[in-house]
Amino acid sequence: MTCTFSTEQIASLSAPLDRAKVRQREQGRTNVSYLEGWQVIAEANRIFGFDGWQRETTSVRCVNQAERTIGREARPGWGVTYTARVRITVGGTAQSTVIREGSGAGHGIDTDLGQAHESALKEAETDAMKRALMTFGNPFGLALYDKQQREVTRSPGESTGQSPAGNVTRSIHRSPSSAVSSARDDAGLTPLDQSVIRQVLGTLRGLPRPVLEGFTKAFRKRFQVPEEATSIADRILQKRHQDWIEAFLVQHHVPASSQPDCQPG
Q: N- or C-end of the chain: fewer Cβ atoms within 10 A?
């Protein structure tokens, strides 16, 4: 079975989300983190290629249309709501195609009924597209579903003890309790036994050189290994490193061919 994604694509999909790309909007008494629609499309073009993915709106439905007042002046207008479902297809052949779908909703308010419909329809399609692409990884907003946003890069001077907008910021969806999240983090930070480290390094040394080079690049990006570090061998120390390596090998369906002259660099 052939892996759909290249080593470089997996590295990009596994990388933390750049804080500079995240926007905030007020929702009630809190701020909500989100990615803009154009940003998500740009990331899809960058990672999958301009001709490497497709978007298809599979269903659209107007679920509400009602007269309402708009603004402090109480101008007569319309409120419209649409729901949509979008299918994202990545890959060029039937054997290496990944399909994800997402549902979304959009709301339009305008004094002109047609403009209200247009706004609601566009918003619903964009929302559904973002939810479908989100399942591919952090660059598409998956990291924002974590209340603590641990897979979002920190801005200079940002405190490590809370989310970027302080205590009023929350993720788009409800996430597991902090106690469960903390326990998961602690498990990932568990040091590996030396025997396990030797076994992992032995497996890596047996990889074909192109795969090993791709793995090294992906590992450096995923765990933000400094460029000046000449090797990643001494960076494989914790359970989270082992888990990520195992997932990488499974995703690539890598045969463990022996090349002892290769070293993880």
A: N
